[in-house]
Amino acid sequence: MSRLSPLFATVLLLAALCSCSEQARYGEAVAPPPLFTALIDGSDLAGWWGADTEDPSAYLALPAEQLEKKRQASQANIHKHWVYQNGDLVNDGEGLYLTSEKNYGDIELLVDYRTVAKADSGVYLRGTPQVQIWDYTKEGGKWDLGADKGSGGLWNNAKGSPGRDPLVLADKPFGEWNHLRIIMVGERVTVYLNEKLVVDFARLQNYFHKDLPLPRSGPIQLQTHGGEIRWRNIWLRSQSVLFAQHMTSQRLVRRKCHAQIPENPRRFARQRDWQPMKQTR
Predict the structure, then answer these.
(1) Using CA atoms, how far apart are residues 216 and 130, in angstroms rounded to an integer?
(2) Can you give the pTM of this predicted structure?
């Protein structure tokens, strides 16, 4: 039997590793990349409570004892409608939205999800709606609201404003896992759905106080109604001021230097990989 050359064997090994990484990114439970923290652990709902679409500035202004009472009062509801099945965090399409106890500002958020026909969901950033997830088919009945354009848009922004509609239809068919990568710097949000850019550094408008900027921080919320949705591999890293400045400057020079935010969510796993770009002339 002929032996593989070292170079060819290395190529095969790298191809296998890339294939495994790509498969694991969509739905298979794996460990977070370096510097990312897992927001769900596959066993319990510690660190989460339940809230509706409600102004986070109102409940975050409550005295600590009242806020804790509000959180505890929601526990029965979320434990009824949010359960773990084989490592998946599953919501039955009803109940309060899962809301993080911790507040976040500038972040990079990675999320795997799988949904069903006619389901409607989303990710609230700083308690503000939302990165939209929904049924993109005609049978879903929401083409008049823009569902035909797909998921990933900032749907609660004003009509016609940048980011409200996704740039491309990137949803996978029902039964397959989708992968969201959300980068938030200040009020600006960039979204990749299944490695495709769907929101390009658009401002997330303040849904509750339209004449005010977004709060500097707030909870992550998983919003869902109308049908089952499954979540896995919800990973987050908070961004330093240096990284936030880099993202802003990168956007400003993108057209001139023909650069983009990297599409692979694991490509830049270490903070030192994010270096300010040199502007080309």
Answers:
(1) 16
(2) 0.80
